[in-house]
Write a structure and sequence with these properties.
- The structure is a single chain.
- By secondary structure, the chain is of the alpha+beta class.
- The chain has 2 domains: about 1-175; about 190-430, Jelly Rolls.
- Helix content is about 50%, strand content about 10%.
- It has 14 helices and 10 strands.
- It has helices at about 1-20, 25-45, 50-75, 85-105, 105-110, 135-150, 150-155, 160-175, 195-210, 235-240, 245-255, 370-395, 400-415, 420-440, and strands at about 190, 220-225, 260, 265-270, 300-310, 315, 320-325, 330-335, 340-345, 355-365.
- Strands 1, 2, 3, 4, 5, 8 and 10 form a 7-stranded antiparallel sheet that branches. A 3-stranded antiparallel sheet has the order 7-6-9, with no helix packed on it.
- Helix 2 (about 25-45) runs parallel beside helix 8, helix 4 (about 85-105) packs antiparallel against helix 6 and helix 6 (about 135-150) packs antiparallel against helix 8 (about 160-175).
- The radius of gyration is 26 Å and the shape is elongated.
- The two termini are about 50 Å apart.
């Protein structure tokens, strides 16, 4: 419930902004009404959420949709009681309730599909008589509402039809079991044990401490893309980022998938603990590195290779339930878009500097070249945009830097709440911007 309320805290103002932009209540009716269908479809098809949090979102949004429907019906002042309407509404409610009773609440909220309970066939009534009684009951309820309140169709012509269409679509998706097997990489922490590999770590570390000496005791973190470094150090870095110890676990986790390094996103990183509301602050709060976890067919795995470390600091990989004090020669592998993680501890200037080699690898699960190319382009493009805004706004001093830093941290928090939350906010802001630009242009013609 806490996560649901946090999402609402950001999404409701965005919906109000969209309503202002489009000068009508339609967006305040259609988006909240249809949201639970989208949440259900996303959970069933992609299966990347846990059953408990999904149940809260699904039940909460369904209650919102039906509550909104009831409020609109009363508000219209045109409720016409009839035997047909009441029969459909009551019959739909009873059928839906019987289906929930037969499944149990956990299975109703895709507990089997999301791995919360074992799979089992349900043959009790009404499932022994109707293929999809829950969805049939919902359609009956919507049909009853349309008969009892015909004014709804006049005021919001897509409301009932949209609910019915999305309910039928969900039933079809469930019937054909249309889904993408989740491919989430569980975080791994390991160490280079080979002496040659350790000597390479030493060489890259010593070079980094010399080359970036003036950055080691600054107040903010430093990122440098590997491809911009002097060519002399690149072969040594390649020995680490393409080492069998690093790539082997990724290939083992995704057998049959093709692995493509993303060297254009690899970085040398001198870490600091910034709590100055700059763009780099989020690295040490709870965060996901990426926001494309809704994109199927590919994964991005990140390696964190510790060249120099303050081993009293603890890295928490919350999604995978793993935590470790990372030392020199240690490396961590995590799912770039799906691993919620952070660092416990505080920065102390007299401790060894925390210097990491951060590398990314795209894993293609489907083997379709155009989709792989699209996935790589989207990941790299988003990576560059986010990194540029973070770099611009770290340790902010000007109003513009503080504003960009605020946006960076806001979107980081939204992404932790839900990947949909920043999308809704962006759409609302873009719609407002388009309106502000279009209005003066319209006056010229």
């Amino acid at each position: 419930m806490n996560r649901f309320l946090k999402t609402a805290f950001f999404v409701v103002p965005a919906l109000l902004l969209l309503a202002f932009v489009f000068e009508g209540l339609g967006v305040l009716v259609y988006l909240p009404s249809f949201a639970y269908h989208g949440v259900n479809l996303q959970a069933f098809v992609f299966r990347r959420t846990d059953a408990a949090s999904f149940a809260v979102r699904s039940v909460g949004l369904r209650s919102l949709a039906f509550g909104l429907l009831a409020v609109l019906a009363v508000w219209s002042g045109d409720v016409r009681l009839s035997a047909a309407g009441l029969s459909l509404l009551a019959g739909g409610l009873v059928l839906h309730a019987l289906a929930v009773r037969a499944l149990g609440l956990t299975r109703t909220c895709y507990g089997m599909e999301l791995g919360a309970v074992p799979r089992a066939a349900v043959t009790t009534f009404p499932y022994n008589a109707i293929a999809h009684p829950m969805h049939a009951g919902s359609v009956m309820q919507f049909a009853g509402a349309a008969i009892l309140c015909p004014a709804l169709g006049d005021q919001f012509p897509l409301l009932i039809a949209g609910h019915v269409a999305l309910t039928v679509l969900t039933a079809f998706v469930e019937h054909v079991d249309l889904h993408v097997e989740p491919r989430t990489f569980r975080a791994i922490v390991d160490r280079f044990s080979d002496e040659d590999r350790r000597r390479t770590v030493d060489a890259v570390r010593d070079w980094s401490l010399r080359h970036f000496s003036r950055h080691l005791h600054r107040e903010c973190s430093m990122h440098r893309y590997v491809e911009t470094l002097p060519r002399e150090i690149l072969p040594r870095i390649d020995e680490l980022r393409y080492a069998d110890e690093v790539l082997g676990p990724i290939r083992s986790a995704f057998p049959g998938s093709a692995l493509t390094p993303l060297p254009m996103t690899d970085e040398i990183y001198v870490s600091r603990y910034n709590y100055d509301r700059g763009g780099d602050q989020g690295l040490f709060d709870r965060h996901y590195d990426g926001n494309l976890r809704f994109l199927p067919g590919g994964s991005v795995v990140r390696s964190l290779i510790y060249l120099s470390a303050d081993d009293r600091l603890e890295v928490v990989f919350d999604t995978s339930g793993t935590q470790a004090n990372m030392r020199t020669y240690t490396f961590g592998l995590l799912d770039f878009h799906n691993e919620l993680h952070w660092v416990n501890g505080s920065y102390e200037p007299d401790r060894p500097p925390r210097v990491l080699l951060k590398c990314n690898y795209y894993v293609d699960h489907w083997g379709w070249a155009p989709w792989r190319a699209l996935g790589i382009v989207l990941n790299v493009a988003v990576f560059y945009v986010v990194k540029a805004t973070m770099e611009y706004s770290k340790s902010p001093r000007t109003p513009a830097q503080r504003g960009v830093g605020f946006v960076c941290n806001l979107f980081r928090r939204l992404n932790v709440v839900s990947p949909a939350a920043p999308v809704v906010v962006v759409l609302a802001v873009l719609a407002l911007a388009v309106k502000m630009v279009a209005a003066p242009l319209a006056g010229l013609f």
